[in-house]
Amino acid sequence: FHDVTSSVLGDITSMASRFEDQAKTLTAAASALDQSHRRVETVLGERHSALDGMVNELGNRAENLDQRFT
Fold first, then answer.
1. What is the DSSP track for the chain?
2. Sign of the four-CA dihedral 59, 60, 61, 65
3. Terminus-to-terminus CA distance in the chain, angstroms?
4. Fewest 10 Å CB contacts: which of 10, 11, 60, 68?
5. Neighbour-count burial for 33-44, b at 16+ CB within 10 Å, e otherwise
C-alpha cells in the first residue's frame, strides 16, 4: 500500500510540476502577444496620422488647383 501511495503522490507531484511549467509558458506567450499587440497599435496609430496628413495635403492641393483653374 505504501508503495502505491508513494507512486501516486509522485505522479501528482510530477503533474503539478508540468502544470506549473505550462502555466509559465502560457504566461510568457500571453505577454509576448500583448507586447506585439501594443507595437501594432502604435504603428497603426502612426500610419493613421500620416495618412490623415496626406489626405489633408492632397485636399489642399486639389483646392489650390481648382482655384487656379476657375
1. -HHHHHHHHHHHHHHHHHHHHHHHHHHHHHHHHHHHHHHHHHHHHHHHHHHHHHHHHHHHHHHHHHHHH-
2. positive
3. 101
4. 68
5. eeeeeeeeeeee
Task: Report how far residue 29's alpha carbon sits from residue 23's, in angstroms, rounded to the nearest whole number.
Answer: 10
The letter for the amino acid at 7 is: S
pLDDT tens, position by position, 19-70: 999 999 999 999 999 999 999 999 999 999 999 999 999 999 999 999 998 7
pTM of the model: 0.62
